[in-house]
């Protein structure tokens, strides 16, 4: 029989008799996602980057987000496509950061993770800030803190508690982290307290007949809030830098995982490939975030979704999707130091780094972003941090503690839905 140029579409498996064997669907998928060891560095790097996770299937929504925005499709479609597109992009940002950090050593690795650990929150925040959506900036950042402290940590404690009766973690490091989180929380309470003190007359009555939103403050009170916010932002950035030195240098031993808990990662990407991928995904994410923010106003008005709910609940779910999965997975492996580091550490980055950074960016770009949150939001943050502090002070966790955190998050979500 003469040779033929017809070959199987995926693979060239042959049976014992020499004839072509039809690959199963499972074998076809594995052949696509497998990463042979003998491939060149760049090829293997990008194959791992784009085909290393099933979540990357959602990358199909990235071009849909671009097309829907430029063709001016319905607001719900534009919001949904951009919303879903950011989920795999957030995962890819984390992958590129982790792979790049493996070659940089402990100090540079820590700085890189501190800078890009919440890249999606920074990108979405800057996009909203430049469009003048100050309330979206505030609620999305506050929502990221609450999502990490209540939902992600709660699900992790709950999932770990179902597998292990009780999990232990290094209490000193956890208390140091929550103390800094408490400090950042207090800095958000002070501007609200200042505003309340300035808007109460001599008889003790509030000068406004209805709740005042942070975006509708009279100029007389805004000047004082701006001075407090910008000064506090600079101080918080200094404290955060000191915390990095504390964590990475002087007291690094407090943050080391217990023996057997270290999560050893393999180098799958070359540093150049990882750096290029990080830059590329950051640019794409910035466009997707810009389209997402641009569709929020119309989506909220047309479909009756409260904007605070979008900023506080929906946007953080996208930004924290990858962290949520990783944290729960580590808790189910009884690696609670890593879980605490992911949840509380991410919240610290947002409260002590991202929020002050955006206040400074707003100062430079002429957008008057302050640390004055609505009273309800401030109280919500305060009680959330208080609950987390109480639950981790004994260095132990169980499923009941996780259920408490999840319940508080659901109460917060319900409250902002009707706000």
Describe this structure in words.
The structure is a single chain. The protein has helices spanning 25-33, 41-51, 61-70, 75-101, 105-116, 119-130, 134-163, 171-198, 219-250, 271-303, 307-319, 321-332, 336-365, 375-392, 399-417, and strands at residues 167-168, 396-397. It is mostly helical. It has a single domain, classed as NCX, central ion-binding region (A middle domain of Talin 1, Up-down Bundle). The radius of gyration is 24 Å and the shape is globular. Mean pLDDT is 80; it is low at 1-20, 28-33 and 204-211.
Please tag this protein with its features:
single chain; mainly alpha; disordered N terminus; globular; 419 residues; A middle domain of Talin 1
Brief account:
The chain is mostly helical and 419 residues long. It has helices at residues 25-33, 41-51, 61-70, 75-101, 105-116, 119-130, 134-163, 171-198, 219-250, 271-303, 307-319, 321-332, 336-365, 375-392, 399-417, and strands at 167-168, 396-397.
């Amino acid at each position: 029989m003469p040779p033929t140029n017809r070959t199987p579409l995926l693979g060239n498996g042959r049976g014992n008799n020499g004839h072509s064997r039809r690959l199963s669907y499972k074998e076809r998928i594995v052949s696509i996602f497998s990463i042979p060891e003998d491939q060149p560095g760049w090829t293997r790097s990008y194959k791992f980057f784009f085909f290393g996770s099933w979540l990357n299937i959602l990358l199909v929504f990235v071009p849909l987000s671009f097309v829907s925005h430029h063709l001016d499709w319905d607001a719900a479609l534009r919001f949904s496509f951009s919303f879903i597109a950011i989920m795999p992009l957030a995962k890819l940002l984390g992958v590129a950061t982790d792979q790049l950090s493996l070659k940089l050593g402990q100090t540079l690795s820590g700085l890189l993770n501190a800078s890009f650990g919440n890249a999606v929150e920074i990108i979405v925040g800057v996009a909203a800030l430049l469009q003048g959506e100050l309330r979206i900036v505030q609620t999305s950042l506050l929502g990221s803190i609450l999502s990490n402290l209540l939902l992600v940590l709660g699900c992790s404690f709950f999932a770990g508690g179902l597998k292990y009766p009780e999990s232990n973690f290094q209490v000193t490091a956890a208390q140091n982290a929550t103390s800094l989180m408490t400090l950042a929380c207090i800095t958000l309470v002070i501007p609200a307290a200042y505003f309340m003190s300035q808007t109460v007359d001599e008889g003790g009555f509030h000068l406004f007949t209805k709740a005042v939103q942070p975006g509708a403050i009279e100029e007389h009170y805004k000047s004082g809030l701006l001075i407090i916010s910008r000064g506090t932002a600079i101080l918080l950035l200094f404290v955060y830098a000191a915390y990095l030195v504390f964590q990475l240098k002087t007291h690094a031993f407090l943050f080391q995982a217990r023996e057997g808990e270290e999560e050893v990662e393999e180098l799958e990407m070359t540093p150049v490939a990882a750096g290029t991928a990080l830059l590329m995904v950051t640019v794409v994410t910035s466009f997707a975030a810009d389209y997402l923010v641009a569709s929020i106003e119309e989506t909220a008005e047309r479909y009756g979704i409260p904007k605070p709910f979008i900023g506080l609940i929906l946007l953080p779910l996208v930004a924290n999707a990858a962290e949520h999965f990783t944290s729960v997975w580590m808790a189910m492996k009884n690696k609670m130091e890593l879980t605490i580091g992911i949840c509380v550490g991410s919240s610290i980055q947002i409260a002590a780094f991202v929020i002050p950074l955006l206040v400074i960016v707003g100062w430079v770009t002429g957008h008057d972003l302050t640390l004055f949150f609505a009273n309800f939001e401030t109280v919500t943050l305060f009680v959330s941090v208080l609950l987390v502090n109480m639950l981790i002070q004994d260095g132990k966790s169980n499923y009941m503690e996780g259920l408490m955190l999840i319940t508080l998050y659901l109460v917060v979500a319900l409250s902002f839905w009707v706000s």
